Amino acid sequence: MTSNLPSVWLHELTWEEVASYLRTRDTILVPFGTTEQHGPAGPLGLDGYVAIALAEDAARKAGVLTAPPLWYGDSSHHLGFPGTISLRTETLMQVVYDVVRSLARHGFRRILLINGHKWTNLAALTSAARNIREFELPGVWTAVADPMYLARGIASAIKHANEHHAGELEVSHVLYKFPHTIRTGRLSDAACDFDRLLGPFGTSDLFAVGGRDTIDQPWTSSEQRSAAPTGQFSSNRAATAETGKQYHEYMVERLVEFLAWWQSHDELSTPASAKAPRREGEELP
Amino acid sequence: MTSNLPSVWLHELTWEEVASYLRTRDTILVPFGTTEQHGPAGPLGLDGYVAIALAEDAARKAGVLTAPPLWYGDSSHHLGFPGTISLRTETLMQVVYDVVRSLARHGFRRILLINGHKWTNLAALTSAARNIREFELPGVWTAVADPMYLARGIASAIKHANEHHAGELEVSHVLYKFPHTIRTGRLSDAACDFDRLLGPFGTSDLFAVGGRDTIDQPWTSSEQRSAAPTGQFSSNRAATAETGKQYHEYMVERLVEFLAWWQSHDELSTPASAKAPRREGEELP
Amino acid sequence: MTSNLPSVWLHELTWEEVASYLRTRDTILVPFGTTEQHGPAGPLGLDGYVAIALAEDAARKAGVLTAPPLWYGDSSHHLGFPGTISLRTETLMQVVYDVVRSLARHGFRRILLINGHKWTNLAALTSAARNIREFELPGVWTAVADPMYLARGIASAIKHANEHHAGELEVSHVLYKFPHTIRTGRLSDAACDFDRLLGPFGTSDLFAVGGRDTIDQPWTSSEQRSAAPTGQFSSNRAATAETGKQYHEYMVERLVEFLAWWQSHDELSTPASAKAPRREGEELP
Amino acid sequence: MTSNLPSVWLHELTWEEVASYLRTRDTILVPFGTTEQHGPAGPLGLDGYVAIALAEDAARKAGVLTAPPLWYGDSSHHLGFPGTISLRTETLMQVVYDVVRSLARHGFRRILLINGHKWTNLAALTSAARNIREFELPGVWTAVADPMYLARGIASAIKHANEHHAGELEVSHVLYKFPHTIRTGRLSDAACDFDRLLGPFGTSDLFAVGGRDTIDQPWTSSEQRSAAPTGQFSSNRAATAETGKQYHEYMVERLVEFLAWWQSHDELSTPASAKAPRREGEELP
Amino acid sequence: MTSNLPSVWLHELTWEEVASYLRTRDTILVPFGTTEQHGPAGPLGLDGYVAIALAEDAARKAGVLTAPPLWYGDSSHHLGFPGTISLRTETLMQVVYDVVRSLARHGFRRILLINGHKWTNLAALTSAARNIREFELPGVWTAVADPMYLARGIASAIKHANEHHAGELEVSHVLYKFPHTIRTGRLSDAACDFDRLLGPFGTSDLFAVGGRDTIDQPWTSSEQRSAAPTGQFSSNRAATAETGKQYHEYMVERLVEFLAWWQSHDELSTPASAKAPRREGEELP
Amino acid sequence: MTSNLPSVWLHELTWEEVASYLRTRDTILVPFGTTEQHGPAGPLGLDGYVAIALAEDAARKAGVLTAPPLWYGDSSHHLGFPGTISLRTETLMQVVYDVVRSLARHGFRRILLINGHKWTNLAALTSAARNIREFELPGVWTAVADPMYLARGIASAIKHANEHHAGELEVSHVLYKFPHTIRTGRLSDAACDFDRLLGPFGTSDLFAVGGRDTIDQPWTSSEQRSAAPTGQFSSNRAATAETGKQYHEYMVERLVEFLAWWQSHDELSTPASAKAPRREGEELP
Predict the structure, then answer these.
(1) Which sign, positive or negative, has the C-alpha torsion A118, A121, A124, A130?
(2) SS (HEC) of chain F
(3) D107 secondary structure, DSSP code
(4) I need a labelling partner for C274 at 20 to 30 A (CA). Which of B74, B146, C94, C170 fits?
(5) How many CA atoms lie within 13 A of B209 on its CB side?
(6) Least Cα separation, residue F16 to chain D (angstroms)
(7) Is C115 exposed, middle or buried (0-12, 13-18, 19+ CB in 10 A)?
(8) Rounded Cα gap, residues F42 and F190, in angstroms
(9) Is the dihedral of CA B190, B192, B193, B195 positive or negative?
(10) Around E174, how many Cα atoms within 13 Å sit in the side-chain half-sphere?
(11) Residues of chain B with C-beta less than 8 angstroms from the C-beta of D10
């Protein structure tokens, strides 16, 4: 339990408070956002707000800590819109390696990356989370959660349109948790015509199930600006704080469920040496 | 049309034959495999055979060229099994950058990466295919095809079990096209117990649709060897060449369809300079 | 002026609001913090809070924007204390390159990095800020501000001890702006005995002027933990919000003064091409 | 002996078959080719065919395994001709490191790289083969074989002209083993005038012995295209399958001889720990 | 004592002589220079001469060895002047890592980098000297000395002007030790007008103490050439060999003092394993 | 002609002197050495002395400039002997790229790298010299000279034994030019038994002509120390200053001949843009 700590946020704690937490716990969340355009109604930091909201509430409910957010992600295809700041895939991977290495030094053994960005961050996050375990830290477990996979069980039931970048669900989510950042007067039906752009092998709904046979066709930031002049890929007109609340609570519940399972679970085989308790401050080999 | 060329394989042609092709065409396929264990029945090169089979037949039917295959991919989680050879994610990304850069020099403008490996290659392939366009070659189009997404429309109809690594569909596929590489006497029901290993947030079928809320939990090669001691993740007992034929032909048809659409299509906006025809041998800026 | 925008923080704005800002302005601040131990009284995020406080208030007073903060920095020597998360120098340089490149795409031409961390971040920040100009973006101006250099004119007048890591001034600063993060009951006289550790060539006051002949002797995280078991390098017992207010206001005033001078100034010679106005969204060469 | 295995090619075997091989053997070959122009008569994949032919036949005769071929190499100076695909030197080095690391994990201790490309691949292959031993895997032996050095004892006796890129010997070699890839109607005397191009310090015969004092003068792909408009550097008019057979068999015999010596030999001092038998699947330190 | 060795320069010794030194000593100096313009009177190699002079005389007096000099440094902002050769920051860091790793292999445990360049080399040298200890070689001590910090105690007393690039002190230094490289007829009062260029937050004296609140504003090589058309930043008209002698002897004395302290000192805590004597030639872990 | 300049060494000149040289010339030499053991008689810096001697005398005779030497090279296989300092291959390549880029900025168009080290430096030097031309600077010519190839015409005539590392010729060379660095009392017949170590495919004479079929077998530094306990690979007992003089003068003559040819030669086709004269100080594209 973190109930005796003044905050779930690592950066609000002193090192002694973290040391105290590590005497009984070994789990931490790390929220990953972006700074990328989210259309006329959504703030550039939308993905960061999503990751922060999920991390904070899941941490509180599960009694675990969360590291401070990374506001920058892999958003190169949004660079055609003013304000977007993108890390290259390679840079983001290095950041993940460094963060996991640092946390492992202190004895954190369950590190859950929470991605607010969907698609393009995932290549870096999942690769890095896998590679660091295989090549450096087999005794540390990593996992990556993302709304696109985490909310499958509720998305279709609560949304009114296909959900894509700056769509109804993610806008509702931030409208619920950080209402001052949504320009509700700018919600609209603006959307990409994916069929025209990507032909019969594109997808227009990140939560589409079963659906089409697809082939990945990456576009550049300048193509994207032509294709989606407002920056919005799917309608968010129906966005409401209430929808955001349902969506948020569903995902937080899933995360808490996962953390409970993860922390009680020791099935994956790890080398004996990795299982030995690591003392606080001890050097890694 | 490549009908006047002696082969669809670039490495079987002379440069003059390629130059002749480039006078009217600008499309090429690039097959990506791996060298990784595929259980007691499947060869280490299975993913390469998949990519080769798809690339060769799609190239023939669409009248386009295919580059020679890359037999090495991102397979680190299989390194616990003898014979697996893995490139790091970062290395594979560099290979993709170099291959695309080289092809772009000659005037290839539509480059379709065909991944035989599913999951773990995709992070490198899709990131690299996107980054090279954004940062270096906006006038070159890239795309990435993978059975996991390409065969959604048929997989459920023809398979008898959940499909995962070394499962019924991919083994059937190679049994159909390269029968000498499958040890049919070793087909079996061996499978991972994903629920036990990954809890309620794992997935046991790469073609599962809708299905569960999932969280990515990468495992190490030594955990994998414990979890799947034969190397096989799902049953392939029902594998037949006939199933492989249906699966293969469905995917080839999809690829040919995509290539037809892609080559007739000029919707994505590209900078004017990139649209200017590039003369054979001309230096890139 | 940003007076018509709802926030100085880029991530709270939409891209259209940023586009509107860029029609008349080209300046942005970027705050760099760390997640590193700051003794028994200071939070792990102290450097981030410093950078955020300076960036936010300077941005408001100068009517300019600020990018979201980077909470992770080059803190490897603090890794002996639980909770510290460090980027390698090389990773931090890549982050700076990517952030500056992204901002330059949109027409930002004056980019002021605000470092809350002092010493060890500076190698990465100043090198990267210099290299990106020389080798890629000569038409974009960068600058780096740090309390250690920015507050020379006031530090000696308001502090009661030598100022070093987790010392009176930086703790006062955060006590003034983010009081809930300081454990005032843990303020103390704990300090390193620099003379014993580093001999006659060390320095015990980051604001020392003139002072000693010095030689840089980097220590490891485990040496540091021995040398400063509480994590605090100099006394912060005298820390007060009032001292923090004076320190903060002095630095904000300096930053505003600098920004006024910088924005009115066109003295440094830049290539003619770089001076041509870049249109919003336009591709960089 | 591999006589009980269905193939010498690793990618045609299952992991269990490789495990069985590793119980008594620790040697593997790795063929490195390129995809680069070889004049009007030779296929782009010529170097790969050379490496494959040597690896396959040497493996069969010596009873050892061979990894699948790498079809891409360091061919930047051929990029002026359509179809050439080049890896940068740095990328190729990383591929070698990854391949050797992977093989070492399984207990392969003698890894012979077979280069079909001559010159420019060698910098990457020999450096990487050396570095990986020194810095990571002292207990694994690597070696690099190349026709240019391997066939010194026969080249002069069987060729009719100076031998250089796309010359009589390498074309004969592939004509013997993969006749469908040579356009015999396009064999010719086309050749570079090396003296005019490189002055008195160039070399026009890769097998020249004693010969001239030389200075390396790298040329770019566009210079090369001017200098050798057909892509051929020396006459291949006299190429015959018979010459290819002699050349091939000589080199295979040399490789088999070397492998026999190498496998019986334990002279080079290796650290005791490296000599300890590594169990299949065991983690490297 | 090195008194029985024929030279303090490592490259003038045989490996047996170095082995003999290492039986009782573990200290070495490494001089870092640059090849960068130093105005009309100073040679391009000035910084190297400074580092060589300090290293050689300090080594002699302290009875320790010095490695050969690196003549290339991080000088990108001087690239506007013919003859300047610059390493990128990242390259220089890699050189430092490699040099320290090599020396550590032999049992050198105190490695003092002597920087003749001031500012811009320091980011690479201090970062690399710190990182290599933290992440690879905790048992090896590194330190970095630079005239800018080493000569604080004498600079103001002996110079007649503000001291900056190519100024009175560094020119005097080289005039004293390598007189043939200074064009005394070209000494002059040429200087940058820093106030005009950098506004109220620049600094015009590298030895300024207390002085101004400053903000780092990196300039490009082309801006620098405009700002300082002769390449000289401050007056060197008063340069004399006598001033150089005082400056040099003061710094050598400081270095010798530091070396004496460093070698007698064992205060910083290092892991026990690192303290175990390393036998000559022994492999590092 | 450099006859009006006070030195052929770039680092002894002012930038104005270099600018004056560049008004009529565009050639420069760059000497590459190593710091690696050369047996009981040769200094660690032997390769640097070789490169310096050749560069200085060739520059004088040809009236061209030489950059300062790099004393560090790719010597990892010598790290078993105290005093050896090695750069990794990748680091050395980066140094070459940076040096060539810098020189190209000033208008140097003919850059001759002079390698004193033989074998292992060559992979990095020749690759980097080739890559920088192809990918960045097609208008700049690079070349690489090495005694092993440059002295073929004389070596056999003047040496008394097979020539290898620390052998008669290179020791004679340095004995002639830098006699104080050779311990003549330690000249000996110590030699590796290459046949025992490398079997029938090794080579024991770097100048061997025609000779054997060879296969490259890299060894580690610890294997090398076992194989050649004195560090010397071939007899240098017969070394004399007179032999060194003949060897040196032969190579200098060859270099001067090459430079004369190179500077009068414009045969290699370069893009028109590259041929445009670059003005001193002008920015590269």
Answers:
(1) negative
(2) CCCCCCCCEHHHCCHHHHHHHHCCCCEEEEEECCECCECCCECCCHHHHHHHHHHHHHHHHHCCEECCCECCECCHHHCCCCCCEECCHHHHHHHHHHHHHHHHHHCCCEEEEEECCCHHHHHHHHHHHHHHHHHCCCCCEEEEECHHHHCHHHHHHHCCCCCCCCCHHHHHHHHHHCHHHCCHHHCCCCCCCHHHHHHHHCCCCCCCCCCCCCCECCCCHHHHHHHCCCCCCCCCCCCCHHHHHHHHHHHHHHHHHHHHHHHCCCCCCCCHHHHCCCCCCCCCC
(3) T
(4) C94
(5) 15
(6) 30
(7) buried
(8) 13
(9) negative
(10) 29
(11) 35, 44-45, 83, 85
Q: What is the pTM of this model?
A: 0.95
> How far is the C-alpha of D188 from the C-alpha of D98, rounded, in Å?
40
Which subunits sit against A, judged by 3+ Cβ pairs under 8 A? Answer: B, C
Query: Quick check: F144 and D216 CB within 8 A?
Result: yes
Distances in Å between the Cα of E223 and the Cα atoms of A190, D260, E217, F281 are 46, 65, 12, 11
For this complex, say whether ipTM is above 0.95: no
Chains contacting chain E through 3 or more C-beta pairs under 8 A: C, F
Residues comprising chain C, all counted? 285
Tokens of B10: 């670039």
Q: Determine the Cα–Cα distance for residues D198 and D215; give it in Å rounded to an integer.
A: 9
The reported pLDDT for the residue numbered B2 is 54
Helix, strand, or coil here: E101?
helix
Cβ burial of F183 (10 Å; 0-12, 13-18, 19+) is: middle
Name residues whose C-beta falls within 8 Å of residue F102's C-beta, 6 or more positions apart in sequence.
E79, E84, E85, E86
Identify the residue among A93, A94, A215, A224 best suited for mutation to test binding to B, counting B beta carbons within 10 A and taking the highest.
A215
User: What's E192's DSSP letter?
Assistant: -
Tally of residues, chain D = 285
Q: Could you report the per-residue pLDDT of A255-268, keeping only the tens digit for each?
A: 999 999 999 976 55
* Residue in A22, A67, A82 nearest the CB of C19: A82
Cβ atoms of E121 and E34 closer than 8 Å: yes
Is B131's Cβ below 8 Å from some Cβ in D? no
pLDDT bin (cut points 50, 70, 90) of residue B209 is low
How close, in Å, is residue A212 to chain C by CA atoms? 32
Of D122, D211, D257, the CB nearest to F200: D257
Report DSSP letters for C220-263, one per residue: -HHHHHHH-TTS--S--TT--HHHHHHHHHHHHHHHHHHHHHHH
Helices C168-177 and C46-62: angle between axes, nearest 10 degrees: 60
Contact D88 B98 (CB under 8 A): yes
